[in-house]
Write a structure and sequence with these properties.
It comes from Gimesia aquarii. This is FRG domain protein. Pfam families: FRG (PF08867). The chain is α+β, with helices and mostly antiparallel strands. The protein folds into 2 domains: 219 residues, no CATH class; 31 residues. The protein is built from 11 helices and 7 strands. The protein has a 4-stranded mixed beta sheet with strand order 1-7-4-2. Helix 5 packs across helix 9. The longest helix is centred in the last third of the chain and has 21 residues.
C-alpha cells in the first residue's frame, strides 16, 4: 500500500481557505482547481465513481448503453448519438457513475462539498490540482475541451469500443446548464483506474488540506454568510425546499437547547 498523501496545512476558517488558495496558486503558478471531500481518510481517493464501484469497463459500458437507450424518451434534448463527450456529461449531471471526476475553480464551492454535512464525525479535506501540470505529466501541453479528438481514446472504452486504459487528463466542457456555471465546474477524465494521488510525482500537481471535524460546523456557517449554500449551488425547487426546511430545524434546535 502506498503512503498516505501528505497534508499541506489545516483549514479552520474561511480566512484559511483564501490562504490555501493563495498557497496553491503560488506553488503551481498556473490556474488551480479544487475538490472537497467530506471524509479525509485514504479510502476517499481521487477516482471517479465508476472506477470505485465497478471492477472493469464491462459494467461501465452497460451503464452507458442503458442510459442512452432509455434517456431519449425522458429528456427533451439528448445529445447526438456520436457525441460521447456530451453523453458522459449528461450522465454525470444526473448522477450516473462515469469516468469523469468533478472539480471546481472555486475553493469556496469545494469547501461547501467538504463540510455540507458538518455533523459527519470525520475530518474533511480539500484537494488542489494544477490542471496544466497534470496534463504536462501526460505530454499534453494544454487543457483541452472534452470534445477534443485528442481525448477520444480515453472515452471510447466507456462506450464499448477500443481505446486506452492509460491517462488522466484535466478537461473543460461547455456550460450547458446553470449548475455548471454557478459551481464553476470542470473535470478530469480517467482512463487509468489508479487514484490520481497515487500517480508518480503527484505532489508536483496536487496539494491536500485537512479540515478538522471540530472546525466543520463553523466553516459551514461562515460559507452560508458568504452566500455559499445548497439552494445557491443547486438552483431548483427541490434544493430550495431542503435548505429552508433545514434552516427552520436549526432554529428549533437552538430554541430547544437554549
Amino acid at each position: 500500500m502506498s503512503a498516505e498523501f501528505p497534508i499541506t496545512r489545516e483549514i479552520h476558517s474561511i480566512g484559511d481557505l483564501f490562504e490555501c488558495a493563495e498557497i496553491a496558486s503560488k506553488a503551481f503558478t498556473y490556474v488551480v482547481w479544487f475538490r472537497g471531500h467530506a471524509d479525509n481518510s485514504a479510502s476517499w481517493d481521487l477516482r471517479p465513481t465508476v472506477h470505485r464501484k465497478f471492477p472493469n469497463t464491462g459494467y461501465e459500458s452497460a451503464l452507458v448503453m442503458n442510459f442512452r437507450r432509455r434517456a431519449l424518451s425522458r429528456h427533451p434534448r439528448c445529445p447526438d448519438s456520436n457525441d460521447q463527450a456530451a453523453w458522459l456529461c449528461l450522465m454525470q449531471h444526473y448522477g450516473v457513475p462515469t469516468r469523469l471526476l468533478d472539480w471546481t475553480e472555486s475553493i469556496l464551492v469545494a469547501a461547501y462539498f467538504a463540510v455540507h454535512n458538518s455533523k459527519r464525525e470525520t475530518d474533511a479535506a480539500i484537494w488542489a490540482l494544477s490542471p496544466v501540470l497534470l496534463n504536462q505529466a501526460f505530454d499534453l501541453p494544454h487543457i483541452p475541451a472534452l470534445s477534443n479528438p485528442e481525448l477520444k481514446p480515453l472515452m471510447r472504452p466507456a462506450f464499448g469500443a477500443s481505446g486506452t486504459d492509460k491517462g488522466i487528463i484535466a478537461t473543460l466542457y461547455d456550460e450547458v446548464d446553470l449548475r455548471m456555471l454557478i459551481q464553476q465546474g470542470v473535470f478530469t477524465i480517467h482512463a487509468d483506474r489508479t487514484p490520481l494521488e497515487q500517480l508518480a510525482d503527484s505532489q508536483r500537481f496536487l496539494q491536500k488540506y485537512r479540515i478538522p471535524q471540530a472546525a466543520k460546523s463553523k466553516l459551514e456557517w461562515q460559507l452560508r454568510l458568504a452566500g455559499v449554500s445548497q439552494s445557491k449551488l443547486f438552483p431548483d425547487l427541490q434544493n430550495l425546499a431542503s435548505e429552508i426546511t433545514d434552516q427552520q430545524e436549526r432554529v428549533l434546535e437552538r430554541k430547544e437547547n437554549a
